[in-house]
Predict the structure.
Amino acid sequence: MPASASTSQLSPAELSYLHSSLSSHPPIRPDARLPTDFRPFSAETNVLPNTMGSAHVGFADGREAVVGVRAEVERTAQVAAGSDAREDDTEMGDTGDSKTERAQGKSSWISLTLTLPGLRDDDPGLFFLEEMLREVLVVPSSTTSTTTAAAAGSLQDGLVINSRWHWRLHIDVVLISPPEGSAAGSYPLPLLSMAIHLALRDTRIPRLKSEGEEDPLADDDWEASVHLYAKPGKSRCFAAGVPPITLLVMVVGGNVVFDPNGTELAVADGVFAVSIARAGSENDLVSILAVRMLETSARDTFKGVPRNEGGNEWDVVPGVWRPKLGGVKRAVLTKVMKAVLGDVGKEIVGSLEAFVVQGG
Amino acid sequence: MAVTILPPLPDTDDYLPSRSKHYNASSDASDSEGGMSLDSEDIDSRPTKRMKIGKHTISRREIVVPGEPITDETQWMRGHGTTTNLSPAATLITATLAGPITPTNKLLSVLPIRARYTPEVGDLVLGRIVSVEKSQWRVDVAAPLLAKLSMSSINLPGGALRRRTANDELQMRRYFQEGDLLVAEVQSVGSMDGAATLHARSLRYGKLRNGTFLAVSGTGGGGGVVRSRRQQFTINTNTGATGGGEVDVILGVNGYVWLSKHIEDSTFGAGSKDNTPSNSKAGGVHLGINNLDEAVSSEAYSSQNNMIEEGTRREIARLTEVIRALAEGAVRVDEDGVTRGYEVAVELGLSTEGATVESSGRELLDQEFRRRVVEGVLGG
């Protein structure tokens, strides 16, 4: 297998062509998509028999992600000094502050494991991706919009059973991709994020027979289980709202391009991973949970060779590729945020919602 | 709609992509054979026929995996993708590739579902430079091994008969650097390992500019490029919604495809525009062995793109998607297919959408649209 199979290095002429195509108004994408178009993907949920929720998402280029979610009951580590006082408070029937304090979960109760082909399991990029996908799941409820639902706001708070026990959530993601081809070098973030979203929407936690401070005892009846995230028409759930979705957004020549593929990413001026979630119960409001900037591979490319070699090395010659230097302006970042909060974010949340309502 | 969520593909024991099965079902069986390769023709026309090989019957669509015994009857001969060496008596035929069994009279061979390109002398290939070594380049041509392009098999600026100096060796990245795409011919194939040696000693070979690259999968049951057809041709895209002028297409035998703007240059014949500068000093002068050096100036190795209009870029993007749709539909790519597919795509684009600049091309992602392009190529 040649080493080139994994490297998707493009020639300076290709980079220059791509960059000017994507910079024109409106941008011309190599696969003739609109800038806000996402690649179509196929999805199904509830595919793995031994999980509490699972999803299978596939792109047309052959990449597929399978996600399984399992929950287990775990003993909560007691805080030596504080726990007594807290328990006393609850026993006294104080419904105020102490109650909400007791219901605070820890973000470490949710773990996410990725398996990507061709990457060692101690690869730093893998940890970065895992954490990027996990951290938005555990955003504290105060920062998400106020929810009027009776259930706990954020996911980890909903996992608390009582002061001694809690649920622990394991999310396992496997990416399957063809050994080579056009998919090489493409950042799998949108695919993984969609798959995790759909798996979490599908996840159900067994109903507990035990009550209050008793040791947890699960109900055998799977039909009685409770959805992790609220489903339309069902009142009981562990967490309000919907799981967040992380979008990959690219900026090139002042254009904002959604869901870039591997070749498009090679000429990006800036790449952002923007996590969005539905704000409140309506579909038409989207809030941004997290934004991360990713390194663009346009920096480490060779520069093109101009026709006339006599010129100054730093002259800008049209049609000759120059590696990207410097960062992204604030105004560009604003543009990205506006684009995400605009129609695109709503449409994505809306179409995922429609899928869950129909098929899930 | 920004995002389209499709239902999962149905379970199928068919080795072909489901899309191709779909068009087989909907179109006339005899029609669907048209664009298929010769090897898979009989598989497709009789999908349900079972054949008797040895003790058990095998569906023609069933695939064997490497190491799977096929038959021990002596009436069968082993063909490509099979071996008899695994059994002591050398009678048991075992598969060495994964794919459907293809019998030709008494010869049993296995047609791989997907295989890398096997270089053969004289093939026109596209390659990407992987590394620069001492007086040679290593080129990825989608073969199992990297191909070799030595310093002495390219035209150096300053004349074909010029001696290669130590200075040239120091400046090898001026000619080709890592990642550069080039079109070349397979000069020889190694007798031991099958590694190809390329040469680019012709004005029609050399560095690629002004366009975009795509790879259709290698040889085998799926897509790929048809051998021994015209591989460099020009498509007039003025019929498209945006009027893109002429687009050059190079179909490498190895499944690499290059689409670029056609640069008008009266000096050279059709399909030879790719390594010649548009503003060549030799413009208009008849080119012979005596003034070859004038054409092969250092400009031949520049990576500066010409000015390309948006219309051309759009039509190149449309052509890219047409070729990709053909490859995904398990249709082998050749000149006729690309031309017809493009015509179908333009027609469909004009009829379905308002043919505005905004909408042109976006329908290409649609599965139904792709299916119709493939159908149009096979049926028309």
User: Anything to note?
Assistant: Chain A has one domain: 12-76+93-357. The helical segments of chain A are 12-23, 82-91, 97-102, 124-135, 155-158, 189-202, 262-265, 330-358.
